[in-house]
Amino acid sequence: MRFLLILVILFFFIGCKSEAELTLERGIQYYEWAIESNGSNVDKAVIEFKQVVRLLSDKLPNISRNEVMILSKAHHNLAVCYLKKEWLDAAEQEARNAFKLMPIEENKATLSVVILERKNKN
Q1: Around Cβ 118, how many Cβ atoms within 10 Å?
Q2: What is the pLDDT of residues 88-109, one digit of tens each?
Q3: 61: cis peptide before it, omega within 30°?
Q4: Is 35 exposed, middle or buried (0-12, 13-18, 19+ CB in 10 A)?
Q5: Who's near 84: CB < 8 A, 6+ residues apart?
Q6: Residue 91 in contact with residue 83, Cβ under 8 Å?
Q7: Distance CA 70, CA 23 (A)
Q8: Which of 12, 25, 106, 110 stands the most exposed, by the fewest C-beta atoms within 10 Å?
Q9: Three-state DSSP state, 33
Q10: Whole-prediction pTM value?
Q11: How far is CA 120 from its chain centroid?
């Protein structure tokens, strides 16, 4: 019986997602709901993504690779939200932050879109 209890407790701790991961997922869900409803009110998503940035930025530079990926995704998602709100300066800064953390194609593409949008607005 004791072995089973230890196994359950171990499984619980290994299987749990961090607060940052859950907050990121909640932000993604809020964004999807905003797009489905009217496409403009992404404020709840922005709040969640900013919370992820706050949670993980406090731990820099001592964060795991997984946490770097989560932080990069939060910056990326903020860039997308800000682009949706046409806050192009903030969108560019967040896209640059995402790319700096994780120089992957998705972050590069988002940064390119933001820069192109800024050129078209000027």
Answers
A1: 14
A2: 999 999 999 999 999 999 999 9
A3: yes
A4: middle
A5: 39, 40, 42
A6: yes
A7: 10
A8: 12
A9: helix
A10: 0.84
A11: 26
